[in-house]
Amino acid sequence: MKIAKFAFGLICLAILASNIATMSRWNEARGVYDDICYLRQAHLFQRLGIGGLNTNAALDYDDYAKGKWREISYAEWSDPARWPCHTPMPGGKLVIQYPPGTGFLLALFTEGHQVVSLYIAASLIVCGLALAGIFMARTLPSTVGAGLFGALAIYLMINPAKASYSIAPSMALCAVAGFLTALWLTRRKRSVLLIALIGLLLGASVSCRLPNALLMAGYCLFLAIAFLRSRTLADFLQGLAFGVGALVGVTPTLMAQAVNAGSPLATTYGSADVVAPAFDPAVLGQYLHDMQFVLIVLAIGSTVRLLRVGEGSARQVALVVTGNLVVNLVFFLSHPIFTPYYIVPIAMLSLWSVSFAWLMQPEQARQAAPLTREPASLGVPSR
Prior knowledge:
Blueprint: H1 2-23, H2 33-48, H3 64-71, E1 86-88, E2 94-96, H4 101-107, H5 114-136, H6 140-155, H7 167-186, H8 192-206, H9 217-230, H10 233-261, H11 281-288, H12 291-309, H13 312-333, H14 344-360, H15 363-368
Antiparallel strand pairs: 1-2
């Protein structure tokens, strides 16, 4: 088993090294409109500090954005009213539609090397957790499973994560949140600090992608049902801690919306993105032929397996994941727009959570699991 762990560790490191070599050759001027908007947000933070939350096109005093649009040969680079991914707001302002998190993270790195640095940093986090999973495994099958999943997770940092700069930090946050979710629910006593930290991370992920707010759905359902069943102060504090953490994490997005849209609850997205749900066979067909379908099958399959043969506390992780998957899949599969990365965050959060839940089970429970079929409980583990 030590040989298997060493071999899979080397495979993960080799994929990471290959990714870094590939990323180091990336060009930030690849002609994708969204890229310019994220980089413009980063430039505003570097130039104005917290004032960079204000993304009004009128603040392009140094012609940074115009230069970026011209660099990719955008025909109407000189007219802010024609800039992509900018939305007109009441009062005549023209603002970036995206939340500020991705731009803020890009601003932490040197201009001109921001994208490569962000992706390498996110990849290192994912690789670190993949290696942790491999060396936590206590049987050969679990070592092989953790190794294969770790290799896949690192590979995905190139494709499809490259499709949008917001996906790399989302993937890293989902990996960490998945680890903490398993740690929170498989411990003898559930930590209020851990669930608060999970809420903080998932709330912060909303500042990278607004739809990441749906990643909290399963946790909200689980905590609400647990409290309604027990009516105990302990379960109430768990839900309160998660809510406070999530609120703190989402605060940058609320501040940005207040500055740019006039209200913390007003969206900066245009009407093309704010659409009513509608199941479209064409969109469903695109998902069926995309890598996302494979990830969802893996997420559903691993969750069902954990529900069937996992130890009691580990199965509670599966309950959280189940709620999350149902809410997210209903939303995205009824969203009449397809992209190659919409479902990736929920799939990866689910897979990380289930993977670590399986690895963190007590050894005796894992050996006995195939023989047991007790129903999962929302209560605090009695171990």
